[in-house]
Amino acid sequence: MVEQEKKGIIDTILDRVGINEAPLFRTPDYMYNISYWLGAMVAASFAYTVITGLFLLLYYQPAFAYQSTQSIINGVPYGPVLLFSHLYGAYIMIILAYIHMFRNFYKGAYKKPRELQWVTGVILLALTLGASFFGYSLVSDVLGVNAIDIGSELLVGTGIPGASTIVGWLFGPGGSAALSSNPLVRSELFDRLLGWHIILVFLIGVVFLFHFMLSERYGMTPRSSDKPKVPAYYTKEEQMRFNEWWPRNFVYMLSIVLLTWGIILFVPNLLANINGLPIVINPHPAPQAGSPQAVSVEPYPPWFFLFLYKFVDFLLPNGMPITPILVLAILVVGLVILMLLPFLDPSDYISVARRKFWTWIMSTLAIYLIELSIWGYLQPGVPEPTTAQIEYLGPPLVIIGLIVYLWPTKGNTNNAGGGNINLVKAHNTTKVIKMNITPLEILLGAVGALSFSATLFNFIEFPTIVNGIILIPLGLFVAYMLRRVAAYILGRKPIAAVGSQVGYSWKKRAAFYGIIVIFVVSLFLLGLMWTLPSIGPKATYAGMDLGVILMLWGIGVQLYHYEVYVKE
Questions:
Q1: How confident is the model at residue 475 (pLDDT cuts 50, 70, 90)?
Q2: Any residues with CB less than 8 A from the CB of 339 and at least 6 apart, and which?
Q3: Which residues 6+ apart lie within 8 Å of 191 measured at CB?
Q4: What distances in angstroms separate CA 35 from CA 3, 201, 233, 448, one per listed residue?
Q5: In which element (H, E) is residue 416 found?
Q6: How many other C-beta atoms are found inside a 10 Å radius of the C-beta of residue 403?
Q7: Closest of 19, 341, 242 to residue 233, by C-alpha
Q8: Confidence class for position 7, pLDDT limits 50, 70, 90
Q9: HEC readout, 199-248
Q10: Upstream peptide bond of 299 is cis (omega within 30 degrees of 0)
Q11: Which residues pair with residue 384 across a beta bridge?
Q12: Residues in contact with 266: Cβ distance below 8 Å, sequence separation at least 6, in sequence order
């Protein structure tokens, strides 16, 4: 009788749970790249905002919205850390969702068999914007109340039957209730906003589960060189040659989550200590609505709706303002077209060079979102005639169109997808994946080096805790970029060779010692965190410290993944 191998307690528990039998897709070596895990970063951001939101609910009082917000900042242990990171968790989730959407378009991830995955993704983006809008208004500062007024006026101005009723459902007594001296009236408004915020977050969770199920059904989108035509997915037989999700995918996912949470913690707590920030991105609440300080504040909407805010300023060719009903109609039609994109694009090719028309449309949309947002911030409420619209929006449309039209069509057109095409083996591949340096990376390295130098001199002159904490991530970033640039200059083309036979043994040793260094530095930062203030605005120092710790742990797990799983 063959004696069974004795297992540890952790392996025994995982075996009882059936962790290896979970129906999660396998992953080839080349997909251990952050661009393939943007959806995981969005999910990590969502999880963080939900967790911190539940804690904030313990202290938030709708009848005294602004006062309770200030109380969280000034009186709750690590209150500003929770509040500011909750806010920026939503911000980062929105940014990542946009990047994830456009990246999936360019990679052809919306095509068969992932049509429903794209549709649910667009719905998730819309729900995220809606939940963030209601959460943004819960503070009762002048920006949040102005956002309610702008939304109410836009809906009522459409003149559609029942518009006033819809506004009542959404905003109850309206933004003016925030100025009432009666706490019951204020509570009626902010109870309504909080209710919608929670409902939309719940819907995000439900739709995300369906979205995740669809993602697991077909796995990540293969490269166009492997599957040039739809349906683009690896078959069950092909996936059996890839890495199991446990433990390698779990380890890589853990590193992604830690890095994302570290950024969510570090960025807003750093910005909270910088004076002169634009009001639309400042983590601190704006002045309370109705206060004397609020009079001089521009009526900005949330930054993620600045593009719409500027669009409302457009004038028709006859010089008349664009009507709210036309604005709403354009938004609805545009959203429907975006959702139905998988069914409107007739191309069977995954390569973006063979999808010229929709590449032109989506690329122009990405530029317009950025351009209109900046325009809306710089010139809020300024009517824009047709000539100005053409002047600002015309060049991107034409330039992008010419670039896409002249873009040479390349790619393998053999096979219709679904067959075994250049299958990337998970364990024995000899394919070298090169990571050549790009001009953007050189620019980022130069900017990071300058920032690090300036911060270092500032720390020498003013050795404060904040400057010291800022030096750590800047130094790590600069060291990483300098290593890449140096490797490129010295001629080491295969800077990274994931899963390949090519590699350098010193990298494994460097990863091992890097983990030790990160462990020691983390212990120091953990000890430092307990010496930092936990009450009041200065608690943000501890938030920055914790953010750096989580980022370091994320890097440490990445190094562990490299040392244990990446073959040389």
A1: confident
A2: 118, 119, 122, 123
A3: 62, 172
A4: 45, 25, 17, 22
A5: none
A6: 12
A7: 242
A8: low
A9: HHHHHHHHHHHHHHHHHHHHCCCCCCCCCCECCCCCCHHHHCCCECHHHH
A10: no
A11: 314
A12: 473, 543, 544, 547, 548, 551
